[in-house]
Backbone:
């Protein structure tokens, strides 16, 4: 599932390159309560539009624990896993 993050102010990644939003493609493991980012992109404008100033390509990182309750990352995990309610280990 893609997660879009907008920033109120432009962020700099270095070399005078700025971005206003990011998109991350997450793969979720609903049984183990983990996720991993598979693609990471930064855009010059809000809402993931405009020029892409950074593209990670395909990442092969390890699964990490889902963020704590109340975090947008946790809510995204809940939404992704709600597509198959039987896959949720717990609903906290």
Residues:
């Amino acid at each position: 599932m893609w997660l879009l993050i907008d920033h109120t102010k432009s962020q700099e990644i270095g070399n005078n390159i700025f971005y206003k939003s990011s998109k991350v493609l997450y793969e979720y493991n609903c049984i183990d309560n983990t996720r991993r980012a598979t693609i990471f992109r930064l855009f010059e404008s809000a809402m993931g539009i405009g020029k892409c100033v950074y593209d990670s390509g395909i990442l092969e990182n390890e699964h990490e624990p889902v963020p704590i309750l109340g975090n947008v990352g946790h809510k995204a995990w809940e939404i992704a896993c709600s597509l198959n309610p039987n896959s949720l280990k717990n609903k906290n």
Notes: The longest helix spans residues 72-82.
